[in-house]
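JOB MANIFEST
job_type = single_chain_structure
chain_count = 1
residues = 133
[input]
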Amino acid sequence: MPRQHFNPDTLAKRVVGGHLLYSHAVSVEGKRMVFVSGQVPRDREGNVVGKGDMEAQIRQVGDNIKVALEAAGATWNDVVKTTTYVTDIDEFFRHMDARMTYFSALPASTTVEINRLSNPDFMVEIEAIAVLE
């Protein structure tokens, strides 16, 4: 699937830990879109994973997104947009390496700090949009 990432020099770039965090814009040509609902840090039995541990929660959410994508015939490589909700943005940015393991190409991305998620033990929730040929 042809994909272009745009990071114009006239727009500031967000870098944490030496990693560019997102693309300002992503252009894709594809035939099918996959929308992944907000995934939370629950295991397959519904137990909260990593209570109080942002890195563990990011990894569980990433793994859950992978499962949802695969069910729809997609992979993390097909993701062009993510929206991330966190309860502590500073803690989230401290564990950016955990997030970066899922991307080969950076999607367009929005991260929002909120007071709480649907369960007080959740620290992160991520939605994803993928485009397939």
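[summary]
The mean pLDDT is 91.
The longest helix spans residues 54-71.
exit_status = 0
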